[in-house]
Amino acid sequence: MALVDVARPRKSASIFDRFRSKRDVAIDSSGTPASAGAAVKDVLAPDSERKRERFIPVTRHALLDRLTLDHVWSKGQAKEARRFFRFLDYWRQQQYHAMLLDLEQTYEAFSPDTDLLITRQFSVGDRAILKTRVVQGVESLLQRANFERIDPQDVALILTRESHYGLDLMVDMDAFEDILIYYRGATNKKHERRRIQGFMRKEEFDVPVFNRLFLLFKLKPFNVRVEELMARDKLDRASAEKKVTKLRCGLPPGISDGNIYLKLFKNIPRTDIEMVFPNTQVRFRMMDKLRLGLSTGGGLGMGAVGAAGKIALLTTNPIAAAGAAVGLGSVAFRQAMGFMNQKQRYMVVMAQNLYFHTMADNRGVILKIASRGAEEDIKEEMLLYCVLAKEPAHRSDLPAIDAAIENYLKRAFGVAVDFDIEDALARLVRDGIVREEADGRLTVLSPADAAAHIDSKWDMYLETLPDPLSPEGAELSGAYAAPKA
Fold first, then answer.
1. What is the pLDDT of residue 158?
2. What span, in angstroms and rounded, lies between the C-alpha atoms of 356 and 377?
3. Which residues are CB-neighbours of 192 under 8 A, at least 6 positions away?
4. Would you say residue 246 lies in a domain?
5. DSSP code at position 49
6. Tell me, what's the pLDDT at 361?
7. Are 233 and 269 in contact (CB under 8 A)?
8. Taking a C-beta distance cutoff of 8 angstroms, is the pair 89, 378 a contact?
9. Which candidate, 280, 390, 304, 292, places its Cα nearest to that of 336?
10. For residues 282 and 291, what is the distance between their CA atoms, to the nearest angstrom?
11. 458-462: which pairs have CB atoms within 8 A and are 24 or more residues apart?
12. How many domains does the chain have?
């Protein structure tokens, strides 16, 4: 039964009981859908084998319109419900804005893009505390925005896969001191290609992509990386420093191991996830090695044969012999340039594709994920409130409520979602919209009372703001440091 059908007081059995009998997905004793299963380790698994995401791919405005239709509420309540949801939306956005202000202040010490004067200095210990706070704060926002984490160690699974853009890429994951990789929306996109077997006719094929891909990284300090290589590879300091310098020569100009970098991308093919890293190295594929190797070997071989035939002229005609040597050298130079040009073409392909995939950098990423986190919260809360406000409920009914909401989203919008009911309930309880009694009953304010309750909380909000000052660092006196480039 659709969620919006639960509109008026029922005299028959509860919607939860009827749903339990009709549901086509079993629920175990813990309340977890049996079809969810364990988390899929390989992020490249087919959609049918992947776990459902918590992300609800529907705008809050679309949900608000559907959930406040006149016929799904008792007489006069639809308008009050719409008013309450709007109040709740602004209230949740304001709470995220407060979190955002605090996180932005902490991130300023690590921002690579700041154009502000440096008026505060931090010790090594202070920076370590602030770095942990930044990483934890960003990760909390990502989880609130219903992003899914990818273990950095699992990137190795992807490196062996066929690349959608025809690139063979390598990433040194040991170069990072901190790294977070999150995605939201793992789907398939339709692409076209021409196949020789089909007489160059176009054919459609599916490309598995991450609709959103987030990356946070901080490089290890140079000396730390040098000491790691000395211990791991048994190198002296000079050799280790030379190796680290060589490994970092491909990094973009201006990148610093003192900064924390945040990147947000869209529609990244899952097989090309490694191209979003700053230290990605392009390698030749096996077909490239064979093609260039045969071309080089054939060119040099033919040049050597031609030059060898003129060696006899060395004593009689030195100029001809010198010309043969120059010809052989030019053949070798052309083949070497072939290798370099092929690698340059690969770099251009990677740069062009990243240009169109990039959505935001650094501080802009924090702003975006905070906005998305607030939107996910309000969508979850509207859905849960619509059920609790229309049916007497008990904590033991939560698994059935969760299933009913998921079923509604599937039938109304065609999306399969793993609804996060516990978090939504915790927020409504914390804000006083829902109260859990000692016996487990869940009592809910009516839409009109809930709107008035949010209004009163808003009036008191400024009185409860925390002190924004951080105990870390010390203000500089006198001259200030110049802003970063």
1. 54
2. 29
3. 202, 203, 204, 205
4. no
5. G
6. 92
7. no
8. yes
9. 292
10. 17
11. 458/87, 458/90, 458/91, 458/94, 461/94
12. 1
Residue 36 within any structural domain of the chain: no
The confidence score (pLDDT) of residue 264 equals 94
Cα(340)–Cα(112) distance, integer angstroms: 32
The CA distance from 377 to 427, in Å, is 9
From the list 82, 45, 40, 87, the residue with the least C-alpha distance to 65 is 82
User: Could you please report the per-residue DSSP string of 83-152?
Assistant: HHHHHHHHHHHHHHHHHHHHHHHHHTTT-SS--S-B-EE--HHHHHHHHHHHHHHHHHHHHHTT-EE--G
Whole-prediction pTM: 0.76
For residue 380, being part of any structural domain is answered with yes
Q: 166: left (phi > 0), else alpha (psi -120 to 50), else beta?
A: left
For the CA atoms of 221, 226, 227, 229, the dihedral, rounded to the nearest 10 degrees, stands at 130
Residue spans of the chain under pLDDT 50: 1-42, 160, 292
Domain enclosing residue 344, as ranges: 41-220+257-390+443-467
pLDDT value for 373? 95
Neighbour-count burial of 119, counting CB atoms closer than 10 A to its CB (0-12 exposed, 13-18 middle, 19+ buried): exposed
How many residues does this entry show for the chain? 485
**Furthest-apart CA atoms within the chain: distance in Å:** 115
Identify whether the C-beta of residue 307 lies closer than 8 Å to the C-beta of residue 324: yes
DSSP code for 368: H
CA distances to 110, 288, 383, 437 from 92, rounded to whole Å, are 28, 54, 15, 25
* Those residues with Cβ within 8 angstroms of residue 26's Cβ, 6 or more apart along the chain or in another chain: 33, 34, 35
What pLDDT, on a 0 to 100 scale, did the predictor assign at position 116?
A: 79
Q: Which residue has the tokens 């950098």?
A: 361
Would residue 356 count as lying in a domain? yes
Find out whether 183 and 147 touch, Cβ atoms under 8 Å. yes
Nearest 5°: phi and psi at 168? Answer: -110, 110
Q: What's the CA gap between 164 and 350, in Å, rounded?
A: 11
CA distance 456 to 474: 38
